Amino acid sequence: MSELVLDSLPGLPSLYRSALISSVPLPWVRGRSATTSGIPELPTVHHSVAGVQASVADLTRFQHLIGAPAHDLLPSGFVHTIAFPVAMSVMARTDFPLPLLGMIHLRNSVEHRRAIHFSEKLDVSAWAEDLRPHPSGAQVDLVTEVTVANEAVWTGRSTYLAKGSRLAGPAVAPKEERTTFIPPQLTTLWDLPGSTGRSYAAVSGDYNPIHLNALAAKALGMKRTIAHGMYLASRMVQESKPAGVESFAWSIDFRSPVLLPARVALAISTHREAGLWRGTEIAAWNPRRAREHFTGTLAPLALTD
Question: What are the MaoC-like domain coordinates in residue numbering (predicted)?
Fold first, then answer.
């Protein structure tokens, strides 16, 4: 696999503009990159950028947004915001076979291997892998790795769905049957105003119109603007991780979008043995409709190795 070294972090607004310009449907699914058999291929390239340092101002605003105390260590979700433009630059390539606009965020899994100080210089690398069928289209993983002096300190895998982008080849497996959701014991409620998407965009740089503008959201299949998945994930981690834990893994699976404004109910179940934290499970849902929004897990990283 080759490597494309970027001079600096790409700007997310310009990437979204490029995605809009190139969003005209093409052959196969999108028709951008395919083998001689007509089956699309992912670009075999890593995008990387070196020497990235967190902005203290952005860090402070991010901490305030997710309810975290001011601290000189980077929240796990904030590391994602630093690395995300590099992953986006992979998806915005002309040879990336799925449409960037309208991509649905299905899942995140992260290994946060140690505390990361805001003053550390971060090297970020991102690539795409595992393009595969989904009952509603095609899905792909974007993998991002953050290193400090060649030490891997944070690795994230984000899974996205391109709805309606059908892959050639074997028949798509039938949809999994979901059991009826029964809300667990309530732990807390989040009241998210209609401005939540704009607030997160201001601190993360993620100005995807599906989170900002009702007309754009409707054009992309939503009833109204939706909360960023990584805002929900970052807040989930902040409210579920015990204080002092510096090496941990977490994941989040999105079940249905959070339409803004919203009230989100959460159940947070923490497991301990002999006084030691062994993990936390989270469920979030719409309390009015009893519709599940997401599930999540956190665990000490040593238990996941």
Answer: 198-269
Tens digit of each residue's pLDDT (9 = 90 or more) over 250-274: 999 999 999 999 999 999 999 999 9
Q: Tell me the C-alpha distance between 110 and 277, whole Å.
A: 18
The confidence score (pLDDT) of residue 23 equals 55
Residue 267's identity, in one-letter code, is: A
Residue 19 CA to its chain's centroid (Å): 18
Residue 256 dihedral angles phi and psi, to the nearest 5° = -155, 150
The predicted pLDDT at position 178 comes to: 67
**pLDDT score at 215:** 86
Structural domains in the chain, CATH included, are 1-170 (3.10.129.10), 183-305 (3.10.129.10)
Q: How many angstroms separate the CA atoms of 41 and 39, rounded?
A: 7
**Nearest Cα residue to 46 out of 132, 139, 142, 178:** 142
From residue 274, give the alpha-carbon distance in Å to each of 250, 277, 298, 301, 303: 22, 9, 18, 18, 15
